[in-house]
Amino acid sequence: MIAEFEDYLAKIEDVEHQARVREVLNWVQTSFPQLEQRYAWNQPMFTDHGTFIIGFSVAKPHMAFAPEGVVMTQFADQIAAAHYNPGKKFGRIKWTQPVDYDLLHQMIAFNIADKADCETFWRK
YdhG-like domain spans which residues (predicted)? Predict the structure, then answer.
């Protein structure tokens, strides 16, 4: 893992939360080895050919995933079924909830395919 991710993880006070975020970040990198790691806006994120794919952040009650609004809309039913708390551009997984890796995989794969020809960091 890149040093910036390690610095970010080290700042997570709760060791169980820290381990969970590390597990998710490692899972993304293992599942999608073509993605590049980037640390920006105080969050670890993954990019593909210079375009944003997904980012993660933490708060006291949850870990958030941010794949952009288009993806949140596309997977709204699955996010609701997982009982994640959705926002317009990100979702929240309570620390007490399991991580739905199948759903994360679907969202990341969708974003990679949907942004294959994207030449900007964010969608326009």
Answer: 17-112
Residue in 82, 81, 78, 55 with CA at minimum distance from that of residue 68: 55
Cα separation, 54 vs 60, in Å, equals 20
What is the C-alpha separation between 92 and 65, in angstroms, rounded?
7
Element spanning 45, H or E: strand 43-48
pLDDT 10s digits, 2-30: 778 999 999 999 999 999 999 999 999 99
Q: What is the pTM of this model?
A: 0.94
All residues at 6 or more sequence positions from 74 whose CB lies less than 8 Å from its CB, including other chains: 107, 110
pLDDT attached to residue 19:
96
